[in-house]
Amino acid sequence: MHTPTSPSPTTAAKRERRKEARPGELIEAALELFVEKGFAATRVDEVAARAGVSKGTLFLYFSSKEELFKAVVRENIAGRFAEWTLELDAFEGSTDDLLRYCYKVWWERIGNTKASGITKLMLSEAHHFPEITQFYQREVMGPGQALIRRILQRGVDRKEIRPLDMDYAVYLVLAPMMFLMLWKHSMGACVPDALDLDPEKYLAMQADNILHGLYTAAPSPVTPPA
């Protein structure tokens, strides 16, 4: 009579590591598909297949497609606000330096990644899915605008920029970011050289324009050496 052998400790450990990795693998697969196809067109069985698991396995970790989408947003965007807040608290440079730094970090960590496609998805499909729209407003848009407001208010408090209507000033900072995300996942995705646009140079120029308009006084012109 054949006696089943128990898995070796090494095999059991590999299976346990695989089990622990599955939520992350599912979130990565879901991000790719949501950005490629949109929320409505993405099916959970496609996500499971891309992650290399069954649909039943997916539902062990996420109760619905909506909950999977929320996990994608939290993992790639919303979960970063605590980190960014700590960076802002510790920053010691000027408002000029801070805004430029924020644009650079945003492009590296969000704008130039798959996660930037989530914004285009929300703009396209928000009116069809009020629950995830409210979630996105609560966990991404609201905290994002609050962080920008803090950056600008810091400049006002330090008398580096003039007093502003913060409800509208936040959109001055957001507009270049929104443009780049939409460009990257529309024309930029199909015809990469259509605008011959260097995102980092574009953000640097936008920072120049924004800061020049917000200075408490125009910066003194640089006198060329004799």
What does the model show?
- With 226 residues, the chain is mostly helical.
- Helix content is 70%, strand content 0%.
- The chain has 11 helices and no strands.
- It has helices at residues 9-37, 44-51, 55-61, 65-76, 81-90, 95-111, 117-125, 130-157, 166-184, 187-190, 199-214.
- The longest helix has 29 residues, at 9-37.
- It is elongated, with a radius of gyration of 22 Å.
- It starts with 8 loop residues before the first helix and ends in a 12-residue tail after the last helix.
- The mean pLDDT is 87.
Short description:
By secondary structure, the protein is mainly alpha-helical. Helices cover 70% and strands 0% of the residues. The protein has helices at residues 9-37, 44-51, 55-61, 65-76, 81-90, 95-111, 117-125, 130-157, 166-184, 187-190, 199-214.
Number-wise, the strands total: 0
Query: What is the global morphology?
Result: elongated
Order of helices and strands: HHHHHHHHHHH
Unreliable spans are: none
Alpha plus pi helix count: 11
Oligomer: single chain
Largest sheet: none
Structural classification: mainly alpha
Q: What percentage of the residues does DSSP assign to strands (E)?
A: under 5%
Could you list some keywords that capture this structure?
226 residues, mainly alpha
Helix and strand topology:
Elements: H1 9-37, H2 44-51, H3 55-61, H4 65-76, H5 81-90, H6 95-111, H7 117-125, H8 130-157, H9 166-184, H10 187-190, H11 199-214
Helix pairs in contact: 1-2, 1-4, 1-7, 4-8, 5-8, 6-11, 8-9, 9-11
